[in-house]
Amino acid sequence: MFLDPKPKTKLEIAINAVLDDMENHSPTTEEYGKLLERLKDLHKMKEAEKPSRPSSDVMLQSGAYILGIAMILHREEFNVITTKALNFVPRIR
Predict the structure, then answer these.
(1) CA distances from 71 to 53, 61, 62 (A)
(2) Model-level pTM greater than 0.90?
(3) What's the distance, CA 2 to chain centroid?
(4) Which residues have C-beta within 8 Å of that of residue 31, sequence separation ≥ 6?
(5) Which tens digits make up the pLDDT trace of 3-21?
(6) How far are the Cα atoms of 7, 17, 72, 88 from residue 3, in angstroms, in the given order?
(7) What is the distance between the alpha carbons of residues 44 and 38, in angstroms, rounded to a whole number?
(8) How do the domains of the chain map onto residue ranges?
């Protein structure tokens, strides 16, 4: 009735298969330990798939650019800019 909004990846399917297989074994068996190691490896692979966040330097620099543009636009609203104020805003590389 309810559809999963995001289809599962092959990695998520493999993790679920290992978890299902672990249910069939006792935690004291050697097979359970092997499955646990495989599960750890799969989780490491899943963590490596996640996109990395931008560094704080990039975030700070972007915020400074946006603030500079906002200040120029605010100044332009009240006074006419006779110089080329936009030259102060660095170009995005």
Answers:
(1) 27, 15, 14
(2) no
(3) 27
(4) 25
(5) 657 778 888 889 999 999 9
(6) 9, 20, 49, 51
(7) 10
(8) 10-49, 56-88
